Amino acid sequence: MSEKPAILELKNVNKSFGPIDVLHNISLQIRRGEVLCLLGDNGAGKSTLIKVLAGVHKPTSGEILMDGKTVSFDRPSAAQERGIATVHQFGGTFPLMSIGRSFFVGLEPTKGWGPFKIYDRKRANEIAVKAVRDFGITRIDDGDRLVGGLSGGERQSLAIARAVHFGARVLILDEPTAALGVKQAGHVLRIVNEAKRRGLAVVFITHQVMHAMAVGDHFAVLIRGAIAADFRKREKTREEITDLMAGGETMADLEAEIEHELHA
Amino acid sequence: MTEAIKSLLRRPEAGSILSLIGVVLFFVFFGGVDLGTLLGAASWVNFAANLGIVAIPVGLLMISGELDISIGALIPAGSMTTAILSGYYDLPIAVGMAGALAVGVAVGLVNGLLTIRTSVPSLIITLATLVAMQGLVLSGSVLLTGNASVAVTAPEWAKFLFGQLIGGSHQVIIVWWVVFAVIIGFVLHKTRYGNWLFAMGGDRVSARNAGIPTNRMTIALFVLSAVSATFVGMCQAILFNSAQVSGGMNFIFNAIVSVVVGGVLLTGGFGSVIGIFVGTITFAIVSQGIYFTQIDRNWSNLIIGVMLLTAVLMNQAFRELALSYWRGSKQSVPRAPIQH
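YS: structure for the whole thing
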């Protein structure tokens, strides 16, 4: 295994909602400068797992460690303060707000004093534009333009740049490429690599094996709430991963089954 | 110059400004109105000020993704509270005024708390408080005073501040409206709280995740709109020396029309105070200015309907323009001159 220290670690985490067990005994290490790809079919527990990491849900049992110390997040903001940022499928941005304004939502720079503290539009725009351009999105040059005018990939990039700017150490990307075309997805994958290069720990949730293999260092396959496989880059082929995601059945078995049903 | 026009068109208030120009031109050319007489008239300005003080907070709520129609019952509630306390019971006018504003705070809190605690849309919640307050005001008035109309006489200072007719024609509430619009405009467009409001209307969950106190903001907005409505009622009682339990229902639709003409997006996240202000003026000119034209006043609602649709379509088009400005700008990169 890698010698890099784990920023975030899950130890035997279980989560149940009433009588329904959603996560069983999850143990994972999320390291600095690495991309952990979380793979799994719909309903495998991926979104519950990221909600546990992001402080939305508390684990029923088990431990979350940050920099080796046990932590407990009561609210999403508690996780955010520790540097865990989640970017959702659609970027969580506001289409009818300007780039500068949406970049700084909740953390607006101000100038002036007392009741006349005003939002510093110029500074917000400058910082926001620079932050996105540093990630290689050079088409963004005016912070007054509306977020809704950006492409899906650019919106994702804006959201990632925002998280990094505000000091994220762990970046959770929830299906960032799911709704994007090939070119746009490539955009986002480049930015994931850039975040990794800057030493962030990235958790990349996807069910597109190709996208995972393009950026991942470490892979975990989730099946019915448990980790079915945990392996490093180049330890498994694309076919093996796809088969794992399909629930352990090989794709060939599945094809045979469908064939059989069609003839029946 | 053309760049300045284009940049104006991308702003939320573009549609309302064009609507206002359109309505005035229509009145001048087809109504034969004298522009000087129209602009000098007090009736539409008084109408706009009373409506505008309510329309601004209703617009803020709409930007944040909520709606408040209980204002329709709170205007008579404000005037009746003032008249019953200071007229019927003969308490100092300050007590009546404080009572009116307190009613606003109380109903605003109920609206706000119910909105954040339940998943019921605020339209339904405020519809319920609207009807409930109507009942409460009517039965309360009959129970306490045995009447549905109560007289009140305000002392000089209260008349001066809230019920004066400037120059014998313009209600002093116009000043309150302009000051209120300037303050709220500053807060919405120049402070961080304004940014929070737009974010809430754009995506409430993301806004909350970004650390914005969405619940406290929502309650504050409902309190503001309810207090504004009782304030208008209070001013009317002081001006007219009497209060009635009826009236106020027109304010609901009038305020919503003004806000929507003003370029606020019904689903939230987009709008401006200048837009709401101009939208209110436009609405007031159509409904009151028509008396100065040769057009029969029965047509005024038709004009309002057509204007509403036109303004909404314009706002839609301008919003598209603001969004596509990005893509369009790519083509404006200078190209190499074509060789002949």
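YS: worth flagging: The CA atoms of residues 10 and 179 of chain A lie 29 Å apart.
IM: good catch. Also The two ends of chain A are 48 Å apart (CA to CA).
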